[in-house]
Specification:
There is one protein chain. The chain has twelve helices and ten strands. It is α/β, with parallel strands linked by helices. Strand 1 and strand 2 form a beta hairpin. The site of adenosine-5'-diphosphate has 12 residues, from strand 2 and helix 1. Forms a stable energy-coupling factor (ECF) transporter complex composed of 2 membrane-embedded substrate-binding proteins (S component), 2 ATP-binding proteins (A component) and 2 transmembrane proteins (T component). One of its GO terms (molecular function) is ATP hydrolysis activity. It is found in: Cell membrane.
Length: 285
């Protein structure tokens, strides 16, 4: 069975009021364990509404949703178990840091699980290491004394300390400088590759999507309008443009080169691939 299974998932905010808004309509989607899926779409297309269903912050107003075997259309679903399995990292998660030390902040979730302090300590050390923060150097510091990128990594460690099977991230690199961005994205990639974590990533950055994910789901007006391998999606530059979405900078460059007559492969998403495609087109091999 798929880890996440939505069938005709619909969500209507403020149903029956003058402010009623249909945020998701007939979303059918399944995600298997171990996948790395990007979710893109214009502002207001339903991305954040969708991901909040995956850990039951929102419930379907129509259709079916099962996450990790738990039926979320059932009002009596076991939400506590679900929230241990699905970690949701909001935009700017560092705004939710609040404890006096980095250690205590990461320990907050495991302590709520009533684990003993040795187990809590194990989880804190393990999750800080996963995001590249040295527990010995940083554990006793105030989270508010860290850099923006470090704070964000500590906040993500707090979610990882619950040992989730699925990590859902909303714009994890937003607002960081290029180095902070690269570090955080590298760590997310490593979590997927080394820990086998299933990752869902909402992003506005097509470059980020091209570098990280294998599959892309495109939302528009609350519906899934494209779903497939990242390369196939980025071949549809015109369809994406019609939704107000771009393609990765490298793919855009390749399109322009083709427009000026250089027969480079259109299926090019990374700098290395672009180098090879240009050499090939110029017959430099
Ligand atoms: P995205 O994350 O893609 O920007 P959202 O899921 O935030 O999209 O929003 C989808 C639609 O639902 C939008 O039309 C938005 O105005 C509406 N919406 C989002 N949150 C609420 C809310 N709490 N109450 C009413 N309408 C909302």
């Amino acid at each position: 069975m798929a880890l996440i299974e939505c069938r005709n998932l619909t969500h209507v905010y403020l149903k029956g009021t003058p402010l009623e808004a249909v945020a998701l309509q007939d979303v059918t989607l399944s995600v298997e364990a171990g996948e790395f899926v990007g979710i893109i779409g214009p502002t207001g297309s339903g991305k954040s509404t969708l991901i909040q269903h995956f850990n039951a912050l929102l419930r379907p107003t129509g259709g079916a949703l099962r996450v990790s075997g738990i039926d979320l259309a059932n009002p009596r679903a076991d939400v506590k178990t679900l929230r241990q399995q699905v970690g949701l990292v909001f935009q700017y998660p560092e705004h939710q840091l609040f404890e006096e030390t980095v250690y205590d902040d990461v320990a907050y979730g495991p302590r709520n699980l009533r684990l003993n302090e040795d187990e809590v300590g194990e989880r804190v050390v393990e999750s800080l290491a996963l995001v590249g923060v040295d527990p010995n150097r940083f554990g006793r510091r105030s989270p508010f004394s860290l850099s923006g990128g470090e704070m964000r990594r500590v906040a993500i460690a707090g979610v990882l300390a619950m040992r989730p099977r699925v990590l859902v991230l909303d714009e994890p690199a937003a607002g960081l400088d290029p180095k902070g961005k690269e570090e955080i994205l590298g760590q997310i990639r490593a979590l997927h590759q080394a820990q086998g974590l299933t990752v869902l990533l909402v992003t506005h950055s097509m470059d980020e999507a091209a570098q990280l994910v294998r599959r892309l789901v495109v939302l528009a007006r609350g519906r899934v309008v494209m779903d497939g391998p990242v390369r196939e999606i980025f071949r549809r530059a015109q369809d994406l443009a019609a939704l107000g979405l771009g393609i990765p900078a490298i793919a855009e460059l390749m399109l322009r080169l083709r427009g000026s007559g250089l027969q480079v492969s259109p299926d090019t998403l990374t700098v290395d691939e672009a180098r090879a495609a240009i050499r090939e087109a110029l017959r430099w091999n």
